[in-house]
Amino acid sequence: MQVLRETLMTQQIQEHQLSWALQKPSPNCGDRPDPDDISLLVIHNISLPPGQFGGPHIDALFCNALDRLAHPYFASICELRVSAHLLIRRDGIVVQYVPFNRKAWHAGSSSFAGRSECNEYSIGIELEGTDEIPFTDKQYQQLALITRLLMSAYPAITPARIAGHSDIAPGRKTDPGQCFDWPGYRALI
């Protein structure tokens, strides 16, 4: 039974893509130095404009199409070249920007367990949200399911190798923030 369950779970990741995610390819990615080294999951949060949810702006940022005139804040970030592997929207819809076997540009200057350059060996998942607003049940359910799928497909990712952006870039980043329910999330996985 366990083998059947694991087979069903890994079939949901095909060709390093989540089979049921909306696919919006980002040019902001690269080759991993070691394609077999996928050993860290990093959880982030994002909202564009800050504190506002919904709309096309996160997709536009990750696909280099953010309109600098659509909001005053966008002028300061529209030239950034960033991405994540996945975004989980507040309603639970999942968008994939970068295949898992490719390096997304989500972590920046970072270190985990004494090893720098986390983009080289990590998968980055953005939750639509902020540090100060609780995430939705749908987001936690999707994140837990995706985490289990990733741990099955990439066995070097274990519960001990799941971190927040704030953990790998302390002092520089605060996400996923104080409203992220780590104990609840860990209980779901």
Main traits of this protein?
single chain; alpha/beta; Lysozyme-like; two-stranded antiparallel sheet; 5 helices; 12 strands
Give a quick precis of the structure.
This protein is α/β, with parallel strands linked by helices and 189 residues long.
Written description of the protein model:
The chain has 189 residues and is of the alpha/beta class. The protein has a single domain (2-47, 84-188), classed as Peptidoglycan recognition protein-like (Lysozyme-like, 3-Layer(aba) Sandwich), CATH 3.40.80. The protein has 5 helices and 12 strands. A 6-stranded mixed beta sheet has the order 3-7-6-11-5-12. α3 crosses α5 (182-188). It is globular, with a radius of gyration of 16 Å.
Give me the number of helical elements.
5
| Classification by helices and strands | alpha/beta
Let me know the CATH homologous superfamily.
Peptidoglycan recognition protein-like
Return the domain count.
Answer: 1
Largest sheet: 6 strands, mixed
CATH topology: Lysozyme-like
**Helix percentage range:** 10-25%
Q: What's the oligomerization state?
A: single chain
Morphology call: globular
**The CATH architecture:** 3-Layer(aba) Sandwich
Rounded mean pLDDT score: 95
What's the level 1 CATH class?
A: Alpha Beta
Order of helices and strands: HEEEEEHEEEEEEHEHH
Helix-strand blueprint:
Layout: H1 2-11, E1 13-14, E2 17-18, E3 22-23, E4 29-31, E5 40-46, H2 57-62, E6 86-88, E7 94-96, E8 102-104, E9 111-112, E10 115-116, E11 122-128, H3 137-153, E12 162-164, H4 165-168, H5 182-188
Helix pairs in contact: 3-5
